[in-house]
Amino acid sequence: MVTMAVSSLGCISIHFIKPGVKINSNDYWNTVLHQMLVPDIRYISGDTFVFQQDSALAHCTHTTVEFLVRDTRVHSIQAVATKLTGFEPNDYSVWEILQEWVYCTRVTNLEKLK
Q1: How many structural domains comprise the chain?
Q2: Which end of the chain is least crowded, N or C, by CB within 10 Å?
Q3: Domain around 98
Q4: Residues 16-58: tens digit of each pLDDT
Q5: Strand (E) positions, the chain?
């Protein structure tokens, strides 16, 4: 799994999760958000930012939303909007562009992908 954040201020480092690791809600908010994404986002934007994510189950659980509200003062509005509209802007724009770029050459192993 790969995770990253992109904004008009720049993009953070790409973080790779070990192959085969299943990310549950606890892993997502404790490791991916708390240790990877939020510190990197704060580095480029300070404490004021809008955080948008898709509707993956780990993104929408009570513990994830609680972490975002409590520890980052972010309200996960996108999770609610996605459920209401079925539209996930991240999936249809940034990731599509990245996927096209990655797959323009054959990826034979993780190191080549990185």
Answers
A1: 1
A2: C
A3: 2-113
A4: 888 778 888 888 888 888 889 889 988 888 877 777 777 788 8
A5: 2-3, 6-7, 10-11, 15-16
